[in-house]
Amino acid sequence: MSTTLTEDSAGGAQTVRRALSILRLVACGQERGVRLIDLVRMSGLNRPTVHRLLKTLIQEGAVEQDTDTRRYLIGPEISLLGLARTRRFPLLTVADPYLRELADEVGDTVFLSIRHGHDSICIGRHTGHHPIQVLSIEVGVRRPLGLGVSGVALLACLSPEESTSLVQQNATRLEVQGEHAHDVLGSVEQARALGGLAHKPAGLMPGTSAVAVPITGTDGQALGAVTVTAMAERLAEQRFPMVVERMRQAAAAIAARHARVSDRHLEGQRSRSV
């Protein structure tokens, strides 16, 4: 009897879901890669299952393993597949000129992140004119919501019940990254009280700082988050209010532009359907 799984079988669907879950976790490792032990811990699957999935993904070019570190990284096949939808992020197209202007004005690095399921993903980055730029993450970085100020700002726009549920579901992944769910929820609560503003005086890199504000749609939901990273002294008390005010202005302009573009798109769809 053939052991091939059909797309309608429960086993086949479960395998696909597990493989995609592993791919998302591997993507979090960027160029550093992810250890097998961490993939087992974060996925909740047993070691043989994870190893078997990785072996198949490697054969298909979706994952590769560093021969020196033995860590797993996203393979070339995934990058090539992504080229088929280069215009998949309309928010980036809308936001790009505002992000570039913001980076020019504040002089530091500006990021655009969005929520995707349980993760925040950086989809845009612009550097400023200051001699020292804090390039804390790369475009394409996927992190569990709550890790970093962008994720906190995105969570702060959700209801307390939904944000708590998401953080609890991410608890193991956050712990692997050195964060605790309780601390993340405290940061989310504080950001919610500040209208979504998330500030981390001590950033991911020593001597740096980061601040994020949400881009909210007309329904109050977060479209994304704008983040500025800089040397800590550049986000100190004297300069901090100016940077935040300029970030909020940029976020509001992006939201307004996004609404106009969305309205025109809907009008176009209605006219074509008549």
UniProtKB/TrEMBL annotation:
Q: Which Pfam families match?
A: HTH_IclR, IclR_C
HTH iclR-type domain residues are 13-76
Listed A to Z, the keywords are: DNA-binding, Transcription, Transcription regulation
SMART domains the UniProt entry points to:
HTH_ICLR (SM00346)
Keyword Glycoprotein attached: no
Is Flavoprotein given among the entry's keywords? Answer: no
Please give the biological process terms from Gene Ontology that the record holds: negative regulation of DNA-templated transcription
Determine the domain of life of the protein's source: Bacteria
Give residue ranges for domain IclR-ED: 77-260
Q: Which is one GO molecular function term here?
A: DNA-binding transcription factor activity
Q: Name it.
A: IclR family transcriptional regulator
The species this protein was found in? Bordetella genomosp. 4
